[in-house]
Amino acid sequence: MKKQFYTFLILIFILGLVPVNFSKAETLSNRLKGKILLQVEDKGQAWYIDPITKERAFLGRPADAFKIMRELGLGISEKNYKSFNGYAPANLSGKILLRVEANGEAYYVYPDDLKLYYLGRPVDAFNLMREKGLGITNEDLNDVPVFQKYKEQTEANTNAINSLTQIVEEQQKKISELENKINTNTSTSTTATTTTSCTEDKWICDSWSSCFSGGTKTRVCSISDDCENISTPSPATSQSCNSESNICSAWTYSSWSACSTSGQQTRTVTSSLPSGCTGGNPVTTQSCSVTSPTCTSWIYSSWGTCSQAGSQSRTIISSSPSNCINGNPVLTQSCTPAPYFVAEITFDKDSIANDGVDSIKVKIVTKDSAGTILPNKSVQVQSNRTENLVSDSSGIINTTITTIESANSYQLSVTADQHTYSKIYQVINVRNKISFGVLSASDF
Description:
Layout: H1 4-15, H2 28-32, E1 36-39, E2 45-49, E3 56-59, H3 62-71, E4 74-76, H4 78-84, E5 96-99, E6 105-109, E7 116-118, H5 122-132, E8 134-136, H6 138-141, H7 151-184, H8 187-197, E9 202-205, E10 216-218, E11 221-225, E12 238-240, E13 250-253, E14 264-266, E15 269-273, E16 285-287, E17 297-300, E18 311-313, E19 316-320, E20 332-334, E21 340-347, E22 359-368, E23 378-382, E24 386-390, E25 396-402, E26 409-416, E27 419-430, E28 433-442
């Protein structure tokens, strides 16, 4: 038959607890502050040494441990919590920390590695007590004073445990008596006696957890009365539930992002409550005002050609600071246009090759200093008469000079952009044939 005593010894072996005999010369409270102690000589009862008062508080059931560890908690800001990055500074060793800006989430700072351990539910606190507990003898434990705030609760829990221990011892005594009877009776009477005294195992279960997103909730069950040769199945440790009823109602967020050009900023959800919840309506976007800076510097294209009106322009390639508007970029400036002149003055000799022709055709072309034809330029032409002409879209002026029968030479003067170009030509009538010749030319 499985005994409570054997069960306790197996638990001690699993937890790997070795009693520690501390030197009386040292103050145990100072050495053990912030630690969780397991009273290995007295049913593995658990105690927490408050690092401030250096007094011990009894951790009875999971709910008691959860309550005490949260009541002794120290509030911290989110800024401090995030700066820890999972590990607290040495001055917080052994303390219970509460994230006051994150719905009071609790964490235990384990003194040996300063790591933060989450205390979400009572079962979390109970598991932490078993995993991180340090074994201690009754003699050493008695040197650590009891936390006055929880003295009455400690005495009540101790009395309840002692009472339960007495009941267990009485049951053990009855079991021993029954075993003696079984050993002396026949197998028939053994079966009858065994059947009468213990018919099924007894189980104790924790409360159900919250409903998880998968639609299930769980609990932890442990056997409290184990009958020999009887195997009673454990009660259900999981069951279906309506996850829709576990809708999130509170959230912890990241910081807001910078305001976008569209007037929106965003943030993300870092955690939510209650535990395992889904859905809800977290606020992850909001409107914001975009204030674009004024441009202060620009990169330009090259200046364009100087127009005959005396101006030139350029365009903006880029500006700064980024996404800026307005400002006073310089896009135009005054300039001195290049002068234009008459590059060509040609006479149509064919027009005077025959008798009776009383005029000569003249072609004038307007260009700039680079040889580029300039259309629509004003030109004054003087010969035996004065004409103000304008070149066409091809920069060409076609005109005629009237011949005088008695004259044998003429001077042609063309003025363009305040510059004058002259040519002297001669018309000779020989044997009724008119010939043409340039006597002199002076081009500017």
